[in-house]
Amino acid sequence: MIGYKVVSQRNKKLESWCFLPSVAGVRYVIGKETRPQTGCGPLCVFSSLRSVQENLPNLSDPIYRCYFTPSRKRSVWRKDKETTPLSELPNGTRLATSVTLLERIF
User: Fold this and answer.
1) What does the pLDDT look like over 16-55, one tens digit per residue?
2) What is the pTM of this model?
3) Contact 95, 43 (CB under 8 A)
4) For 83-96, b where at least 16 C-beta lie within 10 A, e where not — what string?
5) Which residues sit opposite 14 in a β-bridge?
């Protein structure tokens, strides 16, 4: 499926964008399939560019069009951390077992 992934660019590397920057840990490479780290839950993408803009109106980080494989999971988690259900994530969030960045949109 096609979606939109917001990433942070740190030291020329693309990492998961997160409300708490110190929490981000997944690295992305354009054109390469990325999966969650061992012991962590699914990755998050937005279903549409409009969802990104509505939830993050002042965003200055890069947005990529991506291909993602939908997850059957209904929450996200990190190693040894509490889970966050999909219902508590921004509207338009989709959970993914893998994400491949295709092209930068913004």
Assistant:
1) 877 555 565 789 999 999 999 888 889 999 999 999 999 9
2) 0.91
3) yes
4) eeeeeebeebbbbb
5) 9, 28
